[in-house]
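Need tokens for this chain, all 56 residues.
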Amino acid sequence: MDANILSKAEQWLHGGYDAETVSTIEKLIKENPDEITDAFTVTWNSAPAVSAASWA
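Here are the structure tokens for all 56 residues:
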């Protein structure tokens, strides 16, 4: 797993999220690092870009 992805995932472990979320993140780190990598990169990179031209 990429160190940046691991760092982001670990922030979720200590970010005050509910126990279910923390448990899911812990499980993904240990058992399915590819899925957590996809979750952090696809989700964050899929937001549409907004530009001044799109406001016209």
